[in-house]
Amino acid sequence: MSRLLIQRWRSSVKTTRLFLCLVAFLSAALAGNRADADELVRFESAPIKLSPFRIRKANELGENLPQPQGTPLLGYVSRPQGDGPFPAVVVMHGCGGMRLSVKDLWPKRLVSWGYVVLVVDSFTTRNIKDTCQSYLPDRVFDAYGALDFLSKSSFVDAQRVALIGFSAGGTATLEGTKIEGNEQLMDRKFRAAVAYYPLCAASQGDATVPTLILSGDRDNWSPADRCRKRLAGLSDNSPPIELNIYKGTYHDFDAPEFKVGRRVFGHIEKYNPDAAEKSISSVHTFLQKYLSN
Questions:
Q1: Contacts of 220 (CB under 8 A, 6+ apart)
Q2: What would the pLDDT profile of 154-200 be if each residue is shown by its tens digit?
Q3: Is-contact 212 283, C-beta < 8 A?
Q4: CB distance 260 to 232 below 8 Å
């Protein structure tokens, strides 16, 4: 009888241990999924503020100015494990919307480097399919609305947030971090900026933050020469702008979904694994340099 009780006790202990191990395994797995998974969030773009000159004129004329309003937006937040606060990155998609590499690959990459990521969806709430034959200037305000949203999160270090944009999102990134642009009207500022194959303009002048631009020499949608011209006109007081141009490379060279390549409105979009790897390494080094402290 005593031997039977001992056997039952041992069996019970073994079962309990297996159960506890299973619970620990599932808890770890769920925690890992929470750290990597996208969380749908809702926020607003930064209100389009009036310039001090416009406000002064309105006061002189006795005009009643409307209260600035933001546009409702959607976004996807990914974050590392832990409480933080972590440095963060706001990501802006291109004119075609939320492609796979922007919504999935880049957030996973950035989270693995230790950054909170907010990918901004500028189209869904505006009922826009694409802007590949038009221009949406409000995207600068989308970026700053995302910055404001992240700055209110306890797990984000609001003083260490970078802006990364792709194609039209890269153009918005440069517009949002140029001297004498809308950036001067914003309460919070980005720490650094990265623009993949943006449409540069020599008239943008100096930047407000250190900037990395990555372009392909065969990209006729966002020609690299335009970026060269901008850099040639920088003043001695401008934060550094680094321009990396990759030979034999077209638009969207970092996006594996374009391995075969395609032509859109007369422009070639094609993945280049060598250029992609080099650019990713440059982005990693750049963010470490400017968001490390």
A1: 266, 267, 268
A2: 999 999 999 999 999 999 999 999 998 888 888 899 999 999 999 99
A3: yes
A4: no
